[in-house]
Structure prediction request, 304 residues.
Amino acid sequence: MKNIFTFAKEFRQRVGAVLSMNQRNLEYIYPSNNRVDFPIADDKLLTKKYLLKAGVPHPETYQVYGYFFDLRNLDLDLSERSDFVIKPARGSGGGGIIVIVRKENGYWYSVGGKQYSLEDLRRHMCDIIFGIYSFGIRDEVVIEQRIIQHDSVNEITEGGLADVRLIVYQHQPIMAMMRLPTSASDGKANLHQGAIGVGVDIDSGITIHATHEGSYLDAHPDSNVFLIGRKIVYWSDIIKIGIQISNLVPLKYLGVDIAVSHEGPKVLEINVRPGIEIQNVNGKGMRRILAATRQMQLDVTKGA
Prediction:
């Protein structure tokens, strides 16, 4: 039986391996990313310009509205569209995003089944422009293509678009998870809104651990489908895209969010302040992995 000293030693080892928020900010985000470059990740339209120029697959942009006056032709713009995504260009944490999946009898319906009239959508877009989802700063509305999820991903989630969050540091993939929507998250793949986090082995692309609202689980709470030991399709392509983006932008510590479609991976957005909950999702810390990567980078620089 373990004594109190063994428990204390193991606890210190576990804590020492976990990256804290302050350590993330002071040791990695700010030394690796110039503040002037933050908009590349914070502004989805600017991100899209980088992705488009480099030929990185991402959802097609249908419309952009930057002023209330731009919405005057909204009925015509949406008249032939039955599925699309509305999002703020500078929102965060999934706020303000509406995923429309069908149109019936003059109304649009979200992935969660909520009904929207044209005026409902117009009011929501006015809120986005006003800055409701971007800390009071005037924003822009992005209407973009809805990604049709790969069947293998549909097998383990339902009612929304899952994505892979990949942490990349100095061009090296550090840790990964797949975020699965639930009924509680209303079809959104954001952990703080009730989505499931599934840790993915960075080398093999196989799921290894999962959490939901801070607790471990091994099956999806809505469908009871087993989540562990599954191979994520297109994994090598996902890793390549993460590295490609780290070479494309000047941000050297970032999160890359990638959806898996039938056509292959598509980048949803990049994040200059990726959260640290990914460590709990994987059941291990990032601190030592990051430190080893940083030391390797220093060794390469000294040898150059």
